[in-house]
C-alpha cells in the first residue's frame, strides 16, 4: 500500500512516459506531429527554472535583516516636525482611525515624540542619517533609501514572515528558496541559500526556521543555517580513523542504494538527498577555505571592526556573508535580533546601532573594493516601522515606539540599484506615505527583477494552483533600478 | 425565359467591356463617392458567384443521373446567374481596388485572377450546353476560383489567417546594443507599433510601405517621407502634426497616436540629417537626440523577455553541461541571452587546463571570475582569446601584471578586479590600450598613494578604486581573547587554550583574580595547565590598537565520578533538578537560567549529600560549582564541610571552610569553592554546604539567599 501511495504521489511525467507502455504509440505520434511537445527543457525555461528570464543586474543577494523593526525615525527618515511638536497629541487627521496594536490601543494619549538623536546630511546625495549610524553615513552615496515601504502585518511574526515569504501565514517558500529554485546554485560546493544569525543587546524577537523554509519547493532550496560558533558548519572533519578515500567510497555505495530506491519510487526527495551528500562531501574542502580568517588583512578587521573576529557577532556574520557571496552563494540571509524598542529606546538603540553600523557599511565598501558590488544586492531593513507617538511614559530622556506598518525605511545598495537616491516620501509626521508607496510585494518583484527574473513567471504549481513569491500582486519599482 | 437569359447575357457582356475599360484606364479614373460605396459591397457579393459556380459545376458533372431536358435548362439558368453575379462582383472589386488602400502583390494576383474568372464565366454562357467543352471549362473555373479566393482572403484577413494558430509565434527580437543604429533602435519600434498595420507589403495604404528601409526611402503615392534637414517641410512631419480631426492626419484618429516625444524625436532626427546608420554610441549623453532615443528605447523594451543584449551564437547545451564541474561553473547569463559567465571555485583543486577548456565558449564568454585561484601571468594569454570578455575578476591571484599589454585585444573589457594581487604602477600603465576599460579595483595591492595619484592623472578615464584606507586617526579597541576549549569542565589532561583571530596580538592573563597588566602578567604562548579550579582573566594587546576589555574564564576539572550519590537534605521545591544525580551528572547549567535539570537549589536547608566510591580513589580536592547572581540573590555557601570514612554511618569531618561571599561581578556567573583536603581514599564522602542566611546590611527582599548548585567535582 505504501508503495502505491508513493507511486501515486511522486511519479513524474518522465517516469510516467518511461514506464507506461500502454498508449506509447499515441505519445510517439504526438511527438512526431509536434516535435517540441515533450522537450522538457522548453517547459523548464517556460516555468523559469534554472536560468534568469532576462539578463540580470544582480547575481547575488545579501539581506541584512534587522529583526524587531528598527525605528525609521531614529535612523533615516528625518522628521523635524516631530521635534517641534514633541509631547503634543497625534492629530486625529493624521491617524485617521487606523488600527493600533494591542500594546498601545489602551493608551489614552498618543504624544508625538521627536528623535532623541541628531540628524545630518551626508554625501553628494545629501541623505539624512542619524548620529548613531556614523559609518553607514559614509556610504550613503552607494545606497538607495526607500522611505515608503509599507506592509500589511502589524506584529513581528506575520510581518517577518511576510517580508521573507510573501505571505503572512508561513509555509510558503522564502525569498532565498525562490531564488535558488529560479536560478540554481552558482557554486556547487556550497548551499545556494545560507542563513546566519546574531543577537544584539536590545529587546529581541525570535527567528524560526520557517523563515528560511523551502515551503513546497524541493528541499534543496531550503536555507542552510550556519552555527554561530567557531565552526559555522559542524562535523566537517572526517571522524578519526576515517579518511577521504574511505568517505568517498561510502558515499558512492550509498548513492547507488539511493538510486535504486529512486528508480522504484520516483520520489524527488531521494535525488535531493543524493545531491546533499555530494555537496556535504565537497563542503569539507570549501568551507574551511571560507572560514579561514588568517588570510584577511588587518585592514579588513579595522573596516568591519574587531568584533568580526568573534564568531556569532553581526560583524563576523557580515564578513562571512561577504566571503560566502564571493564564493557564489546566491542568497545570504542575516538576522540580527534586538531592534524591538517599545521602551528604553534611547538606551537600547545606540547599542543596536553600534553592533551593526560599522559592519553593515564595511560590507558595502568591501564588496565595492573587490568589484563585487555591481552584481551583489545588499538589503538592510526590518519588518515594519515604528510609531511617531510614544508608547508608555514619555520622560525627558526616554521613550518607546510601537509597531507601525504604514511606513518604514529600508535601504539597498549595489546589484543594479541606483546609488545615492531616496525613493518615496512620508508625511511630515512620519505616519502616512505621501509619495510612491512600495508594498512588500513590490519589493519582492523588484528584487526578482534585479536578478533577471520576471516575478509573474517564476511560478510553482502546488495543490492545484500556481504560486509566486508575489502571489497575485507586485509591481517592479522601476525608478530605483539603474 | 429565353428573353430573360438574353438580357442577362447582354448585361454580362456590357459589364465585361466595362471591366476591360477600367483595367485599361485605371490610373485616370476618379471614382465618384456613390460608386465607392458600391465597390465596398464586393466582399459581400463575392460569396454568391462562389456558391453558384460550385453548384453549377456539380450539376454539370451530375447531368447524366438526371432525366429530361429540364436539366439542360437548369444548368443554363445557373450559368447565367453565375456569370451575372461574377461580373458584377469583379466590377465592384475593381472599384474597391481603386481606393488604393491595399498592398500590391496580393492585390495584383487577386485582381487579374478575378478578371479572368469573370471572363471565363461569360465564356461558359457562350458554349451553351456542350458537355465536352463545359466540363473542362468548369473545372478550370473552380481552380481559378480557389486561387482568386485565396488571395482575396489574404487581403481581408491577412496572410496565414487559417494556419496561424498552428504556427509557432516567434516574438520579434530587436537586439539593442551601443552599436545599434539609432534608426533601428528608436524609429523602427515606433513605426512597428503605430504604422506597420496599414503600411506593410500586403496592405500598403497610399502605396506606402514602412516595413523596410528601402521601401521607406521610396515613399508613397504622395512622394518621399522626409526632406533631409528640413523637418518643417517633410511630408511625414506634416501628416503627424495635422489636427487629429483632419482626414490626412496620421495615424488615423481611431488608431494609437505617436507621443509628443516620439514626434519631437523624429523631427529632430530629420533635422539632424536623417542618418540611418548613425549609432547610439556616436552620440554624447547630453545630446537631446540621445536622451529622447533612450526614453523611446526603454518604452518599447517593456517586455523584457524580448530584449536581447548579445547577438552572438548560442552555446550548445552539451558544451555548457560538459564545462560544469564542482570547480568551475559555466552558465548562460539568461535564458534568452547567448552570453556566458564562468566562475572558478576551490583553490586546492584548480588546474591550468580548467581555464583552457573555456576555449569552447570563447566567443560567448563575457564574465570570468578567477578570484582566489592560483592564476599566473602566463595565463593571461589564455584569457585574451575570450574576445567578448567584459568583466574579469583576478582578485587574490598570483597575477603581477606582466603582459597586461595583451589585454588590449579584449576590446569589450570594462571591469578588471585586481584586489589583493602584487601589481605595480608600471604594469597598470600598460592598460592604457584597453579602450573600453572603465573600472579597475586595486584594494590591498600595496600600491603607494603617489602611484595612485599618477594613475588617476595619466589614465583619468578609468575609475581606479583603491578601496578602504583606514583612518590613521581612528584607533579601535581590540576584541577580547577567545577560548578554544569547548566547555568549562576540563578533561584530566586538558590544557587551557586561548586564541585571538587577529594575527600579531599578545594575550596576557592572570590566575589570581586580578586584572592583567601589560608588563608583569604572563603572556599566553602555549596551552597551559591549571589546577582543579581556576579563574583566568585575560586581555589582548596590539600596537596601534586599544587594549581589549578583560574577559574571564572559569574552569573546573573533571574528576572521579561517584558510584552512588544520596541527597540527605531536601532541595527547594522550585529548583529540585533531577535529585542527587544533578550533583554529579557532568551537566553544567547556564549562569542565569535555573529552571533547568542542571540546577538544584537550597535556601532554608543545607545541602547535605553522600558520595560512594567503590574503587576508593585518592581524593585530594573537592570543588563545588555554584551560581553567583546579584539580581536573583544567589551566593556561594557560607560554610562547606567535607566528611569521610568507610562506614557511611560513622563519617568524620576531614575539612571545613568558611567562604566569605565577597563581592562578585555585576552579572551572573558560575563560580566554584575549591577545597583541598588531606589526601585520602575513603569509600564514602559527605558534603555539607550551608547557604548564606544573612547578609550584613540586611536582606532587601527578606526571602533568604539561594545556594544554586550544578555540580560537585572530586579530584
Keywords:
A: 482 residues, alpha/beta, two-stranded antiparallel ribbon, B: 715 residues, 7-stranded mixed β-sheet, 17 helices
Describe the structure.
The complex is a heterodimer of chains A (482) and B (715). By secondary structure, chain A is an alpha/beta fold. In chain A, 34% of the residues lie in helices and 16% in strands. Chain A has 14 helices and 17 strands. Chain A has helices spanning 2-10, 13-19, 24-33, 40-46, 80-84, 92-95, 156-165, 175-183, 244-265, 268-291, 298-304, 314-326, 345-369, 440-450, and strands at 60-66, 119-122, 127-130, 143-150, 193-199, 224-225, 331-337, 376-381, 385-390, 401-404, 408-413, 421-423, 425-426, 433-435, 438-439, 460-462, 465-467. Chain A is globular and about 75 Å long. Chain B is of the alpha/beta class and 715 residues long. Classes of the chains: A alpha/beta (482), B alpha/beta (715). At the A-B interface, helix 10, helix 11 and helix 13 of A face strand 5, strand 6 and strand 9 of B.
The gist of it:
The complex is a heterodimer of chains A (482) and B (715). Chain A is an alpha/beta fold and 482 residues long.
Q: What's the pLDDT, averaged over the residues of chain A?
A: 87
- The shape of chain A, in one word, is globular
Radius of gyration of chain B: 50 Å
Helix content of chain B: 25-40%
Q: Please state roughly what percent of the residues of chain B sit in beta strands, choosing from under 5%, 5-15%, 15-25%, 25-35%, 35-45% or over 45%.
A: 15-25%
Low-confidence stretches of chain B: none
Structural class of chain A: alpha/beta
Largest two-chain interface: A-B, 45 and 55 residues
pLDDT averaged over residues of chain B: 86
How far from one another are the termini of chain A? 57 Å
Major sheet strand order of chain B: 5-6-7-8-9-10-11
Main beta sheet strand tally, sense and closure of chain A = 9 strands, mixed
Count of individual beta strands of chain A: 17
- Large-scale geometry of chain B: elongated
Report strand % of chain A: 15-25%
Number of helices of chain B: 17
Give the uncertain stretches of chain A in residue-range form.
16-48
> Would you report the number of β strands of chain B?
27
Amino acid at each position: 500500500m505504501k508503495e502505491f501511495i508513493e507511486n501515486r504521489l511522486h511519479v513524474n511525467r518522465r517516469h510516467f512516459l518511461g514506464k507506461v507502455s500502454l498508449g506509447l504509440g499515441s505519445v510517439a505520434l504526438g511527438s512526431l506531429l509536434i516535435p517540441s511537445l515533450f522537450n522538457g527543457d522548453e517547459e523548464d525555461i517556460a516555468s523559469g527554472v534554472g536560468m534568469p528570464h532576462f539578463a540580470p543586474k544582480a547575481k547575488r543577494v545579501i539581506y541584512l535583516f534587522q529583526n524587531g523593526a528598527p525605528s525609521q525615525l531614529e535612523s533615516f527618515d528625518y522628521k523635524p516636525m516631530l521635534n517641534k511638536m514633541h509631547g503634543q497629541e497625534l492629530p486625529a487627521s493624521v491617524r485617521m482611525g487606523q488600527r493600533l496594536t494591542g500594546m498601545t490601543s489602551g493608551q489614552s494619549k498618543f504624544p508625538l515624540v521627536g528623535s532623541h538623536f541628531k540628524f545630518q546630511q551626508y554625501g553628494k546625495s545629501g541623505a539624512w542619517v542619524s548620529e548613531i549610524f556614523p559609518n553607514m553615513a559614509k556610504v550613503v552615496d552607494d545606497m538607495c533609501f526607500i522611505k515608503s515601504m509599507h506592509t500589511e502585518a502589524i506584529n513581528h511574526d506575520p510581518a517577518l514572515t511576510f517580508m521573507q515569504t510573501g505571505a503572512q501565514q508561513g509555509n510558503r517558500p522564502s525569498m532565498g528558496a525562490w531564488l535558488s529554485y529560479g536560478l540554481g546554485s552558482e557554486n556547487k560546493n556550497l548551499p545556494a541559500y545560507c542563513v546566519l544569525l546574531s543577537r544584539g543587546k536590545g529587546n529581541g524577537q525570535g527567528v524560526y526556521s520557517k523563515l528560511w523554509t523551502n515551503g513546497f519547493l524541493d528541499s534543496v532550496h531550503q536555507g542552510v543555517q550556519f552555527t554561530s560558533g567557531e565552526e559555522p558548519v559542524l562535523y566537517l572533519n572526517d571522524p578519526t580513523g576515517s579518511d577521504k578515500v574511505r568517505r568517498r567510497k561510502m558515499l558512492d555505495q550509498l548513492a547507488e542504494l539511493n538510486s535504486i530506491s529512486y528508480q522504484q519510487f520516483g520520489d524527488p526527495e531521494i535525488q535531493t538527498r543524493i545531491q546533499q551528500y555530494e555537496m556535504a562531501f565537497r563542503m569539507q574542502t570549501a568551507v574551511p577555505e571560507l572560514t579561514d580568517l588568517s588570510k584577511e588583512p588587518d585592514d579588513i578587521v579595522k573596516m568591519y571592526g574587531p568584533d568580526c573576529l568573534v564568531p556569532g557577532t553581526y560583524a563576523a556574520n557580515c564578513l562571512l556573508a561577504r566571503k560566502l557571496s564571493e564564493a557564489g552563494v546566491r542568497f545570504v540571509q542575516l538576522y540580527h535580533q534586538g531592534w524591538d524598542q517599545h521602551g528604553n529606546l534611547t538606551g537600547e538603540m545606540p547599542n543596536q546601532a553600534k553592533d551593526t553600523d560599522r559592519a553593515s557599511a564595511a560590507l558595502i565598501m568591501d564588496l565595492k573594493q573587490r568589484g563585487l558590488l555591481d552584481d551583489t544586492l545588499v538589503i538592510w531593513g526590518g519588518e515594519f516601522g515604528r510609531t511617531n507617538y510614544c508608547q508608555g511614559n514619555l520622560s525627558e530622556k526616554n521613550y518607546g515606539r510601537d509597531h507601525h506598518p504604514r511606513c518604514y525605511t529600508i535601504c539597498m545598495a549595489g546589484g543594479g540599484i541606483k546609488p545615492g537616491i531616496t525613493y518615496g516620501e512620508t508625511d511630515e509626521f512620519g505616519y502616512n506615505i505621501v509619495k510612491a508607496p512600495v508594498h512588500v510585494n513590490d519589493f519582492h518583484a523588484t528584487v526578482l527583477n534585479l536578478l533577471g527574473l520576471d516575478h509573474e513567471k517564476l511560478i510553482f504549481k502546488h495543490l492545484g494552483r500556481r504560486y509566486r513569491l508575489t502571489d497575485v500582486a507586485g509591481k517592479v519599482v522601476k525608478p530605483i533600478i539603474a | 425565359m429565353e428573353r430573360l437569359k438574353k438580357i442577362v447575357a447582354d448585361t454580362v457582356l456590357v459589364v465585361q467591356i466595362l471591366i476591360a475599360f477600367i483595367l485599361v484606364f485605371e490610373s485616370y479614373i476618379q471614382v465618384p463617392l456613390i460608386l465607392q460605396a458600391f465597390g465596398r459591397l464586393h466582399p459581400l457579393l463575392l460569396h454568391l458567384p462562389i456558391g453558384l459556380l460550385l453548384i453549377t459545376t456539380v450539376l454539370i458533372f451530375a447531368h447524366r443521373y438526371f432525366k429530361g431536358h429540364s436539366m439542360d435548362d437548369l444548368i443554363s439558368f445557373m450559368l447565367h446567374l453565375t456569370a451575372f453575379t461574377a461580373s458584377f462582383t469583379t466590377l465592384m472589386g475593381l472599384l474597391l481596388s481603386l481606393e488604393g488602400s491595399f498592398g500590391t502583390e496580393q492585390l495584383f494576383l487577386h485582381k487579374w485572377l478575378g478578371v479572368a474568372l469573370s471572363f471565363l464565366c461569360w465564356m461558359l454562357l457562350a458554349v451553351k450546353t456542350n458537355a465536352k467543352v463545359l466540363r473542362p471549362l468548369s473545372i478550370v473555373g473552380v481552380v481559378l476560383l480557389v486561387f482568386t479566393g485565396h488571395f482575396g482572403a489574404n487581403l481581408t484577413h491577412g496572410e496565414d489567417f487559417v494556419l496561424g494558430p498552428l504556427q509557432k509565434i516567434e516574438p520579434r527580437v530587436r537586439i539593442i546594443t551601443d552599436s545599434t543604429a539609432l534608426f533601428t533602435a528608436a524609429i523602427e519600434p515606433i513605426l512597428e507599433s503605430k504604422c506597420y498595420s496599414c503600411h506593410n507589403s500586403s496592405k500598403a495604404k497610399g502605396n506606402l510601405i514602412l516595413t523596410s528601409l528601402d521601401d521607406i526611402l521610396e515613399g508613397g503615392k504622395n512622394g518621399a517621407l522626409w526632406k533631409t534637414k528640413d523637418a518643417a517641410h517633410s511630408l511625414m512631419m506634416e501628416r503627424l502634426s495635422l489636427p487629429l480631426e483632419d482626414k490626412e492626419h496620421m495615424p488615423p484618429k481611431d488608431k494609437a497616436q505617436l507621443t509628443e516625444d516620439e514626434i519631437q524625436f523624429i523631427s529632430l532626427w530629420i533635422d539632424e540629417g536623417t542618418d540611418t546608420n548613425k549609432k547610439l554610441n556616436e552620440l554624447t549623453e547630453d545630446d537631446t537626440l540621445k536622451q529622447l532615443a533612450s526614453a523611446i528605447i526603454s518604452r518599447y523594451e517593456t517586455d523584457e523577455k524580448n530584449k536581447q543584449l548579445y547577438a552572438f551564437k548560442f552555446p550548445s547545451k552539451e558544451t555548457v553541461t560538459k564545462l560544469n564541474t564542482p570547480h568551475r561553473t559555466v552558465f548562460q547569463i539568461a535564458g534568452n541571452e547567448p552570453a556566458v559567465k564562468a566562475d572558478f571555485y576551490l583553490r586546492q583543486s584548480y588546474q591550468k587546463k580548467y581555464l583552457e577548456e573555456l576555449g569552447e565558449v570563447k566567443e560567448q564568454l563575457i564574465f570570468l571570475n578567477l578570484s582566489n585561484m592560483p592564476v599566473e601571468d602566463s595565463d593571461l594569454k589564455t584569457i585574451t582569446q575570450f574576445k567578448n570578455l567584459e568583466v574579469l575578476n583576478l582578485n587574490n591571484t598570483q597575477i603581477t601584471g606582466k603582459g597586461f599589454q595583451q589585454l588590449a585585444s579584449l576590446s569589450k573589457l570594462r571591469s578588471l578586479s585586481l584586489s589583493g594581487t602584487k601589481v605595480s604602477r608600471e604594469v597598470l600603465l600598460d592598460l592604457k590600450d584597453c579602450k573600453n576599460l572603465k573600472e579597475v579595483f586595486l584594494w590591498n595591492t600595496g600600491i603607494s598613494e603617489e602611484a595612485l595619484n599618477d594613475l588617476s592623472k595619466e589614465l583619468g578615464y578609468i575609475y581606479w578604486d583603491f578601496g578602504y584606507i583606514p583612518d590613521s586617526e581612528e584607533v579601535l579597541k581590540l576584541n577580547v581573547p577567545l577560548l578554544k576549549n569547548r566547555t568549562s569542565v576540563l578533561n584530566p589532561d586538558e590544557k587551557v587554550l586561548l586564541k585571538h583571530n587577529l594575527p600579531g596580538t599578545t594575550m596576557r592573563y592572570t590566575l589570581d583574580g586580578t586584572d592583567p597588566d601589560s608588563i608583569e602578567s604572563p603572556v599566553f604562548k602555549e596551552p597551559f595547565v591549571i589546577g582543579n579550579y581556576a579563574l583566568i582573566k585575560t586581555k589582548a594587546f596590539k600596537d596601534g590598537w586599544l587594549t581589549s576589555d578583560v574577559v574571564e574564564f572559569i574552569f573546573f576539572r573533571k574528576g572521579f565520578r561517584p558510584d552512588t550519590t544520596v541527597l540527605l537534605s531536601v532541595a527547594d521545591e522550585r529548583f529540585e533538578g533531577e535529585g542527587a544525580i544533578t550533583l554529579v551528572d557532568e551537566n553544567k547549567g547556564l549562569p542565569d537560567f535555573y529552571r533547568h535539570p542542571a540546577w538544584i537549589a537550597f535556601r532554608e536547608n543545607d545541602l547535605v549529600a553522600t558520595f560512594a566510591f567503590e574503587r576508593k580513589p585518592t581524593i585530594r580536592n573537592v570543588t563545588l560549582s555554584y551560581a553567583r547572581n546579584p539580581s536573583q540573590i544567589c551566593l556561594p555557601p557560607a560554610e562547606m564541610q567535607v566528611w569521610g570514612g568507610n562506614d557511611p554511618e560513622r563519617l568524620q569531618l576531614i575539612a571545613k571552610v568558611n567562604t566569605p561571599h565577597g563581592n562578585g561581578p555585576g552579572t551572573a556567573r558560575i563560580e566554584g569553592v575549591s577545597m583541598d583536603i588531606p589526601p585520602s581514599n575513603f569509600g564514602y564522602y559527605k558534603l555539607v554546604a550551608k547557604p548564606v542566611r544573612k547578609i550584613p546590611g540586611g536582606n532587601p527582599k527578606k526571602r533568604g539567599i539561594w545556594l544554586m548548585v550544578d555540580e560537585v567535582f572530586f579530584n
